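Recap for those who missed Tuesday's class. We walked through two folding examples back to back. For each one, the amino acid string is listed first and its predicted structure tokens come directly after. Nothing is annotated here on purpose, so try labeling regions yourself before you check the end of the notes.
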Amino acid sequence: MNDQYEVRLEKLNKLKQKNYDPYQQEFERKHTIKELLNIDPSQYTEEKKYFIAGRIRSKRMMGKAGFFTIEDDNGKIQFYVTKNEKNVDFDIVKNLDLGDIVGITGYLFLTKVGEKTIHVENIKLLAKCLRPLPVVKEADGKVFDAFSDKEQRYRLRYVDLIVNPHVRETFVIRSKIISFIRNFLTNEGYLEVETPMMQPIPGGASARPFITHHNALDIDLYLRVAPELYLKRLLVGGFTKVFELNRNFRNEGISYKHNPEFTMLEVYHAYGNMYTMMDLCERLIISVTKEIHGTLKIHYEEHEIDLTPPWKQITYLDAIKQYSGVEIHPDSKLEEIIEQAVSKGFSIDLFQHVNSIWDVAEILFDEAVEKHLIQPTFIIKYPKEISPLAKASKEDPRFVDRFEPYIAGREIGNAFSELNDPFDQKERFLEQVKKREAGDEEAQYMDYDYIRALEYGMPPAGGLGIGIDRLVMLLTNHHSIRDTILFPLLRPEKPEDIIKK
């Protein structure tokens, strides 16, 4: 790589010695390659000029002429350039490399083998590519030597986007999904709002926050783990239907399902409840799937998933019993549940740090249940102890009106009837504080201002959160969340490693 870098640098310096700027200020791009490819050859004429720009992807020099392939954001086309053209500086042409960004002007013609080609009448080097691109070969419709090293693709996402067009397509689809969701909710009467990303008290989810410091006020602040408590303050203030699409930050481990910075949709509907949100969730995911795929039967990895409503519902404890064989009741004893789990084949090591039967339940759900929830399923009726912001069920106050949608073995979101009783909420917060004092860094903080807001009166409401990255994973058939985030968090490189690579 270093040798090629030096060769390209030498070419760049030759151009500079001729007083040519290899990093131009502008080029008036009037056409796209897709537009040119859609023109019928019967319309070709030397009088009709086209102005396109893009990156050189292939090069064949033949003495005083050359054939190149140029690629922009929506296609590739061949261009032909010859030294005989009076407005062509052939020194520029000879010093072009794969990856260089050029602007060309010319007319369309068909080669002897019938390939659509631009005859170049003027060419400008707009930006020199000093680092050689990974060589990706294509033959008979198949790709060889693709830039496939996952770590390098995520770290050098800009190179990944250059050489792997399917990656660009993933993020085009991601943009369409987010745009569709915004329009869908706006048409449903929801107002998009923005709430603080830096908060004096992190709340709305059980997660370890990132801490920063504000110098002028001399206070610690937290990057938000969720916008929930601020959005519900808006319900207190009189808004009835609000949503936010923005970033959350959680100081947690990194895996194929988790990135510390991720995109979340949260929706709140005053005078609604869990079932209002269940209907909205189902309709929203169905609608965006139809928009992207045109069908409700989609392929994800080895599965065909059918999103046709109504989706299956099963309670949290019934799901654990069905898939793990362990039967848990709110009055079960911790030792008995662990003994039962071990008798069903679960390692005792899984339960070394548990403090309650609900800690065991969460482990069993993660280990035994999630992977079976392939077809869309609503898990309902969660225990109150693991749902500090949800309203207790009328039928059994030991449980709450909450659901989580699962598709393809992954949690897509979380929703519940919102707790609006300030006394109950304060008690729930106090229980969370006890957990923090006992060493649980993900337990929630006491938020007295939020209690004060509830004391002004918050209407009964339903709330829904959907992980956008996981939804994009589903709709683009990607196993890892990193494939749906343009710049996922990675361990930083050393400066000397950047130079070498």
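Example two. Treat it independently of the first, because the proteins are unrelated.
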Amino acid sequence: MAARRSTSFVRAAAWPAAVATVIFAVHLPSFFHRLLDGDEAIYGTVAVLMNMGGELYGSGGVDNKPPGVFWVYALTFRAFGAYDMAAVHAVGFLAMAATCALIFLLARHLASARIALLAALFYGILTAAGNPRLLASNTEVFMMLPLTASVLLTLRRRWFWSALLLVAAGLFRQSAAVNVVVVGLGILWLEEPARRWRAAQIAVAGVVAGLIGGALLIALTGSLPGFWRWTIATLVGYASTNWTPAFVWMRAKDSIAPFLVDMAVFWIAAVALATRWRTLAVEVRLMAVWLVVAMIGSLAGGHLSWHYFIQAMGPLAVLAALAFHRFRLRKLATAAAIAGIAIPVFAWWAFDITADPLTYDFATPPRHEAVSAYIAAHTSPADRIFVWGDWPALYVESDRLMASRFPGFLRGFARGSDVPPNNWDTAPDVWPLLQSDLAANPPTLIVDTSAADWSDFAKYPMSDYPVLASMVAGHYHEVATIDGVVIYARNAS
């Protein structure tokens, strides 16, 4: 009897172990590079300033993202050391793995443990099968943990906690707010008519509690006025700039098209299931709604980077798994589906390990590492530097502090286009703040990436910006040019 129980336990544990192994394997490239994305460099540089006592959205760093990701990076650096990106990647992987576990619980609520394992596997694959930015410890991967928990609790009709976790997800990314539709429809579809008003009141209480808690945390770690200025007031302008036709087309080719084509097996399965709307259980219909609103949230900003679609990968994984449960495929169709998933996964896995995540080049060593090596060799850890352009990775790779609160400029902007460079991070109130920062923390080196046209920055030379032009002309001299990047050192006193 004991032997049978032992064998039964091993068999029951074998499939979860296999799924976990596959998920870890496809995410392995995230541990091969120090930085997987320029956004990671932004979060890292800001987090280091925060840990030195600076206020988020103030002297401790400015960005248009909500505070959650900066809190995660700052806490990780406090535990493992400044700019320890390996630790950050481990935390990001754990957040993704925990979301897989929630996807499992959600799909098991809808179907069976076998289908739930398939859904968890699909989410793990979807979040890895793409360019290196998809693997980064970005806002979306952290947002999906509380967002998926919110959906699970919606299915369980735990309205206060579902709404509270929805707000928690919004502390990582503003687009999480679209899931209020899922909570609202959950109340409408899952509650008896006599209980709907009470359920709505409980959900509102959860939202209010979440907003109050979030505001208190921001007040403790940063600036509430700065939060409003940089993360709320900038949204309309940021989105309108991104929705220019040329920029949308460029991003669509790099993100939407491969996301739909490479992961076509998942989309075909999910859409096929959704077309059976009338025969679907109410809870499964809610998953289809979740996918629709998640895609709207992914597209809303117009930036259309691949990692934005992580928001849609949770419901896509659930619906695809349910579809494979509902539709019985012949062996040939099953083999084709497996091949349709495996081939893109292996191709991206090889690319993500071998290519430089910041440039997608295969040059060894990458050019930006040569610039970072020069900075590290000609400064001390106590020195601050200033990078003109959109290359905060140079701060991380050289292990040096920013001299200003701005990690980069014209971020998310259609650089190189004919659009006037009136971005949220080049607004009129930016320049007095920048001037004040550089006066308080005179940079030992100024690194001009526009001279090399890194990230299409050639149209924005420092000479066009009076704060920088006067500072360089009066207090700095050119000391090196590396791959076209011009480096200036402060004049001797």
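Answers for example two:
The mean pLDDT is 90.
Residues 188 and 194 are 11 Å apart (CA to CA).
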